[in-house]
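quick one before i forget lol
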Amino acid sequence: MLSPNEVPLDQIDVADAELFRSDAVFGYFDRLRREDPIHYCSTNKLYGPYWSVTRFKDIVEVETKPQIFSSEARGITIEDDTLGLGTPMFIAMDPPKHGEQRMSVSPAVSPENLMNLEVGIRQRTNEVLDGLPVNQTFDWVDRVSIELTTQMLAILFGFPQEHRRMLTRWSEVGSASPESGSSVVESPEARMQELHMCLGYFTALWHQRAAAEPQPDLISMLAHAEATRDMPSRPLEFLGNLMLLIIGGNDTTRSTMSGSVLALNRNPEEYRKLCARPELVTSFVPEAIRWQTPLTHMRRTALCDTMLGGKQIRKGDRIVMWYLSGNRDPQSIERPDEFIIDRKNPRHQIAFGFGIHRCLGNRLAELQLRVLWEEALKRWNKPMQIEVVGDPVPVDTSIIFRGFSHLPVRINA
């Protein structure tokens, strides 16, 4: 197998699922940032031709020009129509409709509401951590990462907690790409069949909330907001926004909860530093998010001919902004390949995107991670006490997400 430096530049295609599964993609991103930071790939047979934007500053430029680089034209993933779902959702809309719908649910993650949520998040985190086995191997992804993020999602939606694992399943199905080899669902038809079950469940919840007084949950907010109160009459748009909120609330936080354990185990000096100074958890959390970068990319479509980084972009071209590469750009982040929990400016990163489409729930994700590690360090405060004892298994959904389906861990007494 050729190394990244041996592959002819014009044949580099970073949208290869195997490169992500093996983490080999970092070598290709390094080379593109050095030699061809705005790189055109004409050979991808699955998605078609696309531009890779690999440097931090160029990604920011694309993100801040929605009038040129559209989210709505053909979706926000390298795969057309947003993972091939073909469902409108507000993150895949351009202004002004994007802002109107985003505003409908933004109160759920306002600073005031986050303060109200923290007590409950800490209580549920304590319950999950207290239930973990000691001196036994268990799957951190299932027992901690999935459990905590799914409980949080159920609260945000006002969804029955006893059915919360349905949210996990719908998130995995919604983000799966059977065309690129994912085994989560066997076919695009099977995928849509499951997602229509999701739509049916949430439509029933919607009618309950619409008939009641407004409540501080996402479905009630959508049901009572002027811009979205008729959304069930547009079922595909309703399904698209459900997928956005479910996947956004599940996969990214879940991946970083697992990735943070792995990062500490692979960087034992940083683990020792965190145990000695637990107050560093506030900078450790954004560094773990940067390190993991659970959302690898977003896509835009050029609405007109333009120039980007000295390259001629044509109207209709597919532009892929690789956040995973931008977060390892040495021109913007000092020592980017190192995991450093006490960085001076750990929030100088683009794991949540940038500009008007920046992740709505970024502060909630940070809150959940901070509480998890504050409580974990109270119980297990010795370096390597939460020990990774086997190989992590990467997620098998699509190249848009970078996370784990299994992470064997042992808590040493």
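fyi DSSP finds 15 helices and twelve strands in the chain.
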